Each structure stands twice: as C-alpha cells, then as structure tokens.
C-alpha cells in the first residue's frame, strides 16, 4: 500500500502511539506532520530524522490540543490533510467524587474536543481533494469501562460516537472515519511504570505485567505501536474504502470478555 502524495497529520505524535502511527504512515510513503504542545529542538530533529529515514517530507508543528484555535491552526498550517489521525491524549486516575475538575476539563478537551476541531478543519480539505481518511485513536475504554477513569472513559466513548457521526456525514464521499481501540500498548510511558508498580506490589516485573497491567488483556501481551500504525495504514488503503463508522480493537481480546 503506497500513500505517496498523501499528507497525514497525527496529533500528539512526538512519542508513544502517535509516533508509532506516524512512522508507519511515513513508511507507506505519506508526508507527515508531527505534533505536540512542546516546541523543542528535539521535536524538530525528530521530524528531520524521520524524513531522512523514510525519504518523505516530515514536519513538526507545535499546537496545544487543549485549545480549539490551536487545533484548527494546526490543520491550516499543515496546508493539506488527506489523513487525519486524532491521537492526542492524557490520563488521570481518581474516584469520581474526588476527581479534580481541572483534570476532567483537560482530559475532555485534549482527548475529545480536540478531535472535533481538527476534523472540522480537515474535512473541507479532504472534500476539495476528493479523498480522505479520519482515524481516531480511541481505546478499549471507548467500548468498556474501568473504575477511577471517568474522564478518560467518557472521552473515549465520545470519540467512538463522533466517529460514527462523521462516517455518516461523509458516507457518500470518498472519505472514511474509523476508530482504533487499543488495549495496553508497549510505549515508553508504560514501560517506565513497570519497575515502580513491581516495587509497590512486591512482585517481579514479569508478574506485574501479567497480573496487574495486563490483567484484563487475555493475550497477556502488549500491543505494539507498530501494530497500531499498521492498522491505521490499512484503514487508509483501498481495501478499507468501505470500512467506515466502526471500531477496530487491537486489545489482545480485552473487549471479547
């Protein structure tokens, strides 16, 4: 599958799942716009290194996904957006009666409302080009719930609902909108949590992975960022032209339970 000639904007993509998705899109030949809220030399160097590795154009554009104007400006600065991957997200864990209001507001803004703004800005570009793909990175928590994650679960359920609405609004066009629902993915952020969690539970790191972190993931294996990225590339392919308004779970069987 070649995505040569297509421009992909991936929000929250200077690390983790977003970076993995951006790399697979670049590998498939797409020009890529990386994004995060920082504006460091290493962010721009990351783009330069990716461009050199895959032989495609890669740019880094700073935008704060908690701000609607920044979200829309990101798409405008990209200049084109054939593929939009709404990935930006944050997390906070607390009982709902103790959940900080500012954390709720930030999670809803970054994990859900940002996708509304970027999609609204990108659709006119896709319509002008006569082709488009919106890929929303939801979560297993977009289909099920866990305690103490009220804002995250609400936002990810919202992303799944918005995915269906956008798909219906574009159903007669060469534009699709789908959501990928990962379970636990092996990212640097998750890996960094393993030693502390092992110490907390007085377990080995292997036991923590199987019995604590991957408790609800029947495969007892992490998904990889490359697998999430490969799924995104598939959704951009001609084979997926009639796949729209749905979710694809990459969760080791979590949502089969």
Automatic annotation (TrEMBL):
Pfam families cross-referenced by the UniProt entry: adh_short_C2
PROSITE patterns: ADH_SHORT
InterPro entries per record: 3-OHbutyrate_DH, NAD(P)-bd_dom_sf, Sc_DH/Rdtase_CS, SDR, SDR_fam
Record keyword Oxidoreductase present: yes
GO terms of molecular function: 3-hydroxybutyrate dehydrogenase activity
SUPFAM superfamilies in UniProt: NAD(P)-binding Rossmann-fold domains (SSF51735)
Entry EC number(s): 1.1.1.30
Keyword terms, alphabetized: Oxidoreductase
Similarity comment text for this entry: Belongs to the short-chain dehydrogenases/reductases (SDR) family.
Protein name per its UniProtKB record: 3-hydroxybutyrate dehydrogenase
Biological source species: Salipiger mangrovisoli
